[in-house]
Amino acid sequence: MEILKPAKAGTLESSDIYITIYPNESEGINIKLESIVMKQFGSQIKRVITKTLEEMGVENADVIAVDKGALDCTIQARVEAAAIRSSK
After folding, report:
1. Is the CB of residue 51 less than 8 Å from the CB of residue 73?
2. Over the range 57-71, which residues count as b (16 or more CB within 10 Å of their CB) and which as e?
3. Residue 22 has pLDDT above 80, yes or no
4. List-wise, which residues carry O-(phosphoribosyl dephospho-coenzyme A)serine (predicted)?
5. Distance between CA 39 and CA 23 in Å, rounded?
6. Is residue 38 predicted with pLDDT exceeding 90?
7. Which of 12, 45, 74, 80 has the fewest CB atoms lying closer than 10 Å?
8. Are 30 and 3 in contact (CB under 8 A)?
9. CA-to-CA distance for 51 and 12, rounded, in angstroms?
10. Crossing angle of helices 72-87/38-55, nearest 10°?
């Protein structure tokens, strides 16, 4: 799947995550993360985002994530929604 245009998914409500995905000019998946639980779960959140994109076949993307304590399943759903929106 190729990221063609910027897209967003999620909210800034408690227990949610706001994902913005952009086409990436360079190679790979770049993640900029802001989270209220960065020290405890920052690396796990980045793993979930990366794994979800890789499973969808996304090789190049810039992702900005603003997390408000979302569970892994919510993170995955928001990333999937943003990626699908950006590919159409």
Report:
1. no
2. ebeebbbbbbbbebe
3. yes
4. 14
5. 28
6. yes
7. 12
8. no
9. 22
10. 40
At 40-68, the pLDDT tens digits run 999 999 999 999 999 999 999 999 999 99
As a whole number, the mean pLDDT across the chain is 95
Token pair for 49 = 């985002």
C-alpha span between 78 and 19 (Å, rounded): 6
DSSP 68: S
Neighbours of 79 (CB within 10 A): 27
Q: What values do phi and psi take at 38, rounded to 5?
A: -55, -45
In the numeric block, which tokens belong to residue 25? 């000019």
As given in the structure block, the two tokens for residue 72 are 């892994």
Domains with residue ranges and CATH for the chain: 7-87 (3.30.230.10)
- Which whole-number Å values give the CA distances from 23 to 34, 51, 68, 77, in the listed order? 20, 17, 24, 19
